[in-house]
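User: Fold both of these, please.

Assistant: Here is the first one.
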Amino acid sequence: MFSFLLLGGLLSLRKYTVGNDLHYQYYRNFIQYHDLPWKYIYSVRTRYEPGFLTFFKICGLISDNPQVMIIIHSLFVIGVFVYFFYENCDNLPIAIYLFVTLNH
């Protein structure tokens, strides 16, 4: 579990310029769509699905800082992995070791 805490911390505290998709897509679009009114979530013409725009909106209710969106998204992804490993693995330390070291 300590490995997942470290991974979550690294993912959460990364700068928005790490990776082209984060910098040019998610970060910029969060700034553009986080204050979109709820009634326009399903009618705005964008490449994103309404569920992802809803995620932007919920993160925008917490804070309008895009770094908070990165933190929430990173913790959600790590949380899903932790839950999956906890529910489906008999030998949790080996499963985490294989995931972290071999990405397998």
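And the second sequence with its predicted structure:
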Amino acid sequence: MTASKKRPRLSPVSQLQGVLVVLDGRTKIPTAELLSTIRGMVSDALAVLQEPDATKQKIAFVLLAIQQSTEVVVRVVRNKEITRVTVIDQPLYHWALREIHALAGAA
């Protein structure tokens, strides 16, 4: 057997920054909206990962999960503002709620 070569392990920040470079350098994009959404999500994840305080990092990640798992629509009906929140990713949403409760219990 030959010894397998191990690639150097990149940090999550380096990996996510690499994704941004690839997204910025693509010439053939499937849809601009999809790539814009992905780029925004990755940028948010990078910001969370670069937070030095572990508790703040966890809180930011949980809030990011809630943002990504829900869709908020605000409409005006009969001069009243109506806000409708739709959960679009149930498992992620429920995980985030469990994490919020765990963080609140630890305080």
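Strands lie at 70-77, 80-87.
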